[in-house]
Write a structure and sequence with these properties.
Layout (H helix, E strand, L loop, with lengths): L2 H13 L7 H7 L4 E5 L2 E4 L4 E4 L2 H4 L8 H13 L12 H13 L6 E5 L2 H18 L7 E5 L8 H6 L16 E4 L4 H4 L6 H19 L4 E6 L15 H11 L3 E5 L13 H5 L5 E4 L11 E5 L1 H14 L12 H16 L2 H20 L5 E7 L2 E6 L15 H11 L2 E2 L1 E3 L4 E4 L7 H18 L2
Parallel strand pairs: 3-13, 5-6, 5-7, 7-8, 8-9
Antiparallel strand pairs: 1-2, 2-3, 4-10, 9-10, 11-12, 12-15, 14-15
Helix pairs in contact: 4-13, 5-13, 9-10, 14-16, 15-16
Bound molecules: pyridoxal-5'-phosphate (PLP).
The site of pyridoxal-5'-phosphate has 15 residues, from helix 6.
């Protein structure tokens, strides 16, 4: 540790309550103090360089240390550091950004609402779903379907949508507007002798039964990450989304794509739903929108939904929802520059090609490994499923902390990947600028650490 940071490190626990962190561990080990970063590498206060194969929190798509983004931030802050967008106030950057995003977005997503993060984008879309149905006279359409192993955020409504028990423990959550359905993961949820197609049909059948039982008149929306991220890098069977969309359409239930992780190139296309074969009615994005350089989210709705809101406005006046930082001029300028950078440098295609390389390398090295059951994901989003008993698909006991042990060994060797303890999985989502040499290094360290930690 350099003396420069000694003081702040010792004061961290005294003053900071960290998100999603163990206070006990902080008191024992102190914080991980990160002081600079460039490309795909972060540097800690003691001078250690680490290949960040998580991209911060799945968000630094353009890579760290992009001076062109810092420059835009400086210039736009000097010109207009802030003004709100309530009461139809606007700024040129949010308009230009919205126009650009609508051009890139999946077909039928025509209007953009800006916020500050993924949770507020999803929260906004829950409220818009409620508002939309209420304005059409369907005031009882308030329940929202979400899946086991989903992650949609940690605000009160989005933690409720999140299907990971740890986010509910010792909170009065989930709220009862959420209806839970099965996680569409064939590897862990398929029954003995069941084909993937039969599994898919069973899950769609269960959703149809739930709609029947609860009554379509009481259900507003269905939230889905195209590929579950924090829940285990889980992709449903191929027919799942087309069948789901058809079922929901029949019952006037809106399908919301949570593209907070999958959006802006991570899977090798601008958005995940393009690849996974469905057209969402609404879509939430954040993270890669600014590559993490500014806290910003964009929630998309269709013109069909907007028309209903427009009629409501004639009756009610204001659409009574929004945030102090909605349409922030500096955030919008940075997002716009980031999107141009991703476009000009061909990073979406790079994610596709280097993602294919990453998956091929992982498969070459780990397909036959006795403690690896499945390698999942697309583009630069990958999950390595650890198993205790490969033949019978038995996952490791969470109490044995296999993912955390491997991640600790990897960190010692200079690489960060993310442990997903509830599913015994290691998650990889590097900056889209990661090089093939860095991918080789990551895979080498990953394999070495699995071998050293699991015996
Ligand atoms: C799929 C998904 N949705 C929503 C969120 C919440 O975003 P935020 O932490 O910016 O509120 C996350 C965060 O990781 C996410 O992975």
């Amino acid at each position: 540790m350099t003396d420069q940071f000694k003081d702040v490190e010792s004061k961290d626990a005294e003053f900071v309550l960290h998100p999603a962190s163990s206070i006990t561990a902080l008191l024992e080990n102190g914080p991980q103090m990160v002081v600079s970063a460039k490309g795909s590498t972060i540097t800690e206060s003691n001078g250690t360089d680490l290949l960040d194969a998580v991209g911060g929190l799945w968000c630094v798509n353009a890579g760290y240390g992009r001076t062109e983004l810092a420059q835009v931030m400086k210039e736009s802050a000097e010109q207009l550091a802030y003004y709100h967008t309530f009461s139809n106030a606007s700024n040129p950057w949010q308009v230009e950004l919205a126009e650009k995003l609508v051009k890139l977005a999946p077909k039928g997503l025509d209007k953009v609402f800006f916020g500050s993060g993924g949770s507020d984008a999803n929260d906004t879309l829950v409220k818009i779903a409620w508002h939309y149905h209420a304005l059409k006279g369907h005031t009882s359409k308030t329940k929202v379907i979400a899946r086991q192993q989903a992650y949609h955020g940690t605000s009160i409504s989005t933690a409720s949508l999140t299907g990971l028990g740890g986010f509910h423990r010792e909170f009065p959550l989930p709220l009862d507007f959420v209806l839970r359905v099965e996680c569409p993961h064939f590897y862990t949820r398929g029954k003995d002798g069941e084909t993937e197609q039969a599994f898919c049909d069973r899950l769609i059948g269960e959703i149809a039964d739930l709609i029947e039982k609860e009554g379509a008149d009481n259900i507003a929306a269905f939230f889905a990450e195209p590929i579950h991220a924090a829940g285990g890098i889980i992709e449903p069977p191929v027919d799942y989304y087309p069948k789901l969309k058809a079922l929901l359409k029949q019952h006037d239930i809106l399908l919301v794509a949570d593209e907070v992780v999958c959006g802006y190139g991570r899977l090798g296309t601008w958005f995940g739903s393009e690849q996974l074969g469905f057209e969402p009615d609404m879509m939430s994005t954040a993270k890669g929108l600014t590559s993490g350089y500014f806290p910003m989210s964009a929630a998309f709705i269709s013109n069909k939904i907007w028309e209903v809101l427009k009629e409501g406005s004639a009756k009610l006046g204001a659409f009574s929802h929004g945030y102090t930082y909605s349409g922030h001029p500096v955030g919008a300028a940075v997002a716009l520059a980031n999107i141009h950078l991703i476009e000009n440098e061909g990073l979406v295609n790079q994610a596709k090609e280097n993602g294919a390389y990453l998956h091929a390398r992982l498969r070459e090295e780990l397909n036959d490994h006795p403690f690896v059951g499945e390698i999942r994901g697309r583009g630069l989003l990958a999950g390595v499923q650890l198993v205790k008993d490969k033949a019978n698909r038995v996952l490791p006991d969470p109490a044995e902390k296999w993912p955390a042990k491997i991640c600790a060994a990897m960190k010692k060797a200079g690489v960060i990947v993310r442990p997903l303890p509830s599913v015994g999985t290691l998650a990889i989502s590097p900056p889209l600028v990661i090089t093939r040499d860095e991918i080789d290094h990551l895979v080498r360290v990953l394999v070495g650490s699995i071998n050293s930690e699991l015996k």
